[in-house]
Amino acid sequence: MILNISRSIAHGLEKQIKQVVVVENKPGAKTALRAKQVTTSKPDGYTILMATGSTLLLNPMLYKKLSYDASDLVPIALVAETPLIFTVNNKIQVDSIESFIKLASSKKANMFTYASTGTGTSTFE
């Protein structure tokens, strides 16, 4: 999703500044690869980063050593918000987080499995 948003912004920016804007997709390492590229690039305004909160907030909390210093990045615009929703199989008889927690905490519940985008990632990346 972030790549689609980046391309859409680049298209609009090209019209405004009348220059070509190249969007380079650099996936991997929970945004650390692209963050390093931006923080080590020449500070001429030609290299910018579209990233999620993982880059500035989660990565520094999760990893002792990063390939970039998050303090070298300054957020300049909130571009999009993505709601996260908690869902369960409709055969589980719960209708709220509270009722799910109660069920999961009960002795009747053997084990629940869950899906995740991974530690330090968001669904937006």
From TrEMBL:
Domain of life of the source: Bacteria
Family membership noted in the UniProt record: Belongs to the UPF0065 (bug) family.
Identification of the protein by name: Uncharacterized protein
Source organism: Advenella faeciporci
